[in-house]
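Hey forum,

I'm writing up a methods section and want to include a predicted complex as supplementary material. The small molecule is zinc ion. I've pasted the protein sequence and the SMILES. Can someone with a working setup run it? I'll credit the forum in the acknowledgements.
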Amino acid sequence: MSKLSFTILGCGNSTGVPAIGNFWGACDPTEPKNRRSRCSLLVQSADTNLIIDTGPDFREQLNRAEIDNISAVLYTHQHSDHVNGIDELRVLRHRNKLDRIPCFANAFTLEDLKARFHYMFAGGNHDLYPPIIDAHTITENDLGKVHNIADIEFIPFEQDHGTCKSLGYRFDDFAYSVDLVDLDDTALETLKGVKTWVVDAAGYNQTGNPVHANLKRIYELNDVIQADMVYLTSLALPMDYQTLLSELPHGYAPAYDGLEIR
Ligand SMILES: [Zn+2]
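Reply by user p_vandermeer:
Happy to help. Structure tokens for the complex are below, copy them as they are.
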């Protein structure tokens, strides 16, 4: 597999930072790394761009990263903050002169997306609105196994997101885990040997968050995974960048929009 690079296109939780009303919560508005769009990741080889999730900030994120060509989208789950920019795939299809854009997700996510964005899958009520998406279901049987899109290999694994299952993705010795509250032994098995782990920590220092892991649980999980570097993502309004940096142990850091990992 060719060398990969990873760019955090967005590391904010569902509200983004600042939230509407220019509400920054505990985040210092003068720290540029506190300005967070909704979670998305760009994975690049020499020839291929992949995107994980197309949230509401997707257009801005691609323009900021100067990306106008993607080979596929991998979806983690169906929550709006991870999918609501899906309509922008129309523009990418047109620019890339593709027939359809391959999108990978679990069956539940695809069913939900087909109901909400039916025209993206089936086309609209006129030839002017062709189908955009070539849907690929990641089944139970695909979990923990190597798949590829062009020259990029990935391994999907299932995560417990409280009210639904989400998918995490491993690429070589890097893995991306949004949104989750916990991981089971099967997922941990897939994650073993990962050197860099980007993980949802929106639970921060709360106890009993039903859908997001807190820091304590992330530390416990990484005791098993043993990643050298853990970047926290899905960062919420109470999570100020510099405060987090000072609180986190060695080998942990908050992500920020535009962070490149090579
Ligand atoms: Zn979610």
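Some notes you might quote in the supplement: The first strand starts at residue 5 and ends at 10. Residues 5-261 form a domain with the Metallo-beta-lactamase; Chain A fold (CATH 3.60.15.10).
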